[in-house]
Design goal:
The chain is mostly helical. It has helices at about 1-5, 65-80, 80-90, 100-105, 115-150, 150-160, 170-175, 185-200.
Length: about 200
Amino acid sequence: MKNLMTLVLIISVTSCLPKFRTTGLHFKSSTKGVRPVVIDPDTTPGPSEPTEPTEPLPELKTFQEIMDNQCIACHSKTLADPIRMDRWLSGPGTEASKIVRSVHEGRMPKDKPALPVAQVDIIREHVTNYQIKVKIFAEQCMACHSKTFNDPERLARWIVPGKPDESKLYLAVVSGRMPKDKPALSADQITALRIYIENLR
């Protein structure tokens, strides 16, 4: 029931997409005071060993903060484009999304330390909200069933946590009866919905 309570929130698509903010990098160079230096390979010290940062890294608590601090340098165009972001966030379930796979496997962020588990979990939660609460519930269901989605008791009749095959909502989607007067959900969306219900407790 606790998890079902979270479904009553109406989430707009724009609230689940990062807000693009530009950051400027300014470089200055000067030749003032430069003079030739003779380098003796026998006496010149090698590169210094990397040192630990003197200040702790910032604690990132939201999806937006993670994108701004870890991703925007390389993926500013993607973060500013809802269509590109949809490709990164979509998939048959949270773990199948491109962004979750990339950070979970350590491929992203590139040339940086892997994200800590807590930040990966924040990304997972955001992807789940996008796939289920935005792309399915908000876009496909709320127009006709807003009362149900805003009433935990009604919603409990449609979703049985952990049991998609006993959930009226899932069965209505699989049979094609829902969403009414709209195209049927894609196979990926149906799979994502099934996984979501299986993981509800």
